[in-house]
């Protein structure tokens, strides 16, 4: 029996055709009762960038992705225990954190925020990755 489940596997040569990459990755991994979600950006799962030049809109799309990936892993936003947010400009902190805060109201995760010099593509303004748990007695849709 596998110790973990890989969710939405992909290869970087398909995801980043403008770069010479060839890595096998996935969007999330469920290992036991822990879910690790890869850094999510303002691109939907079909590869379309949402919110060119708009950090709040990119954060909204990133959180839609996080929500969907957690649900596919058998969890949900309420079980997030840690977030890490990456910004390419400190001026994006308020719009990004305000948007993320809407999605995580009442969750109270621990959070790390970083300002970095750049992300994988120049149009990406922010990225967020999360770690969530799945309580032993939890069932999707159960409050």
Automatic annotation (TrEMBL):
InterPro entries recorded: RutC-like_sf (IPR035959), YjgF/YER057c/UK114 (IPR006175)
Molecular function GO terms recorded: deaminase activity
Protein name: RidA family protein
Recorded coiled-coil stretches: none
Family statement drawn from the similarity comment of this UniProt entry: Belongs to the RutC family.
GO cellular component, one term: cytosol
Residues annotated as transmembrane: none
